[in-house]
Amino acid sequence: MDVVVCSDTLAMHLALALKKKTVVLFGPTCPAEIEMYGRGPKLFAGAECSPCYKQTCLRPVCMKRLTPDMVLKAVREVAVP
Description:
alpha/beta; 3-stranded parallel β-sheet
């Protein structure tokens, strides 16, 4: 089964509109603003500086706290038929 893994971008909106299973990584944006419609989890590490809505950051703690293991676990959970 296909799973889209992306951040809060146009790719996320397209995946949700096309009803694809989706794992979304949130760092500088707020996960509470997005409805997933039961298509997958929102991964958010909750850094003290997040959400800041900055497009660039010299110290992206919010994204670095999202580990590959966290993403892989979420993908496996979504991919189960």
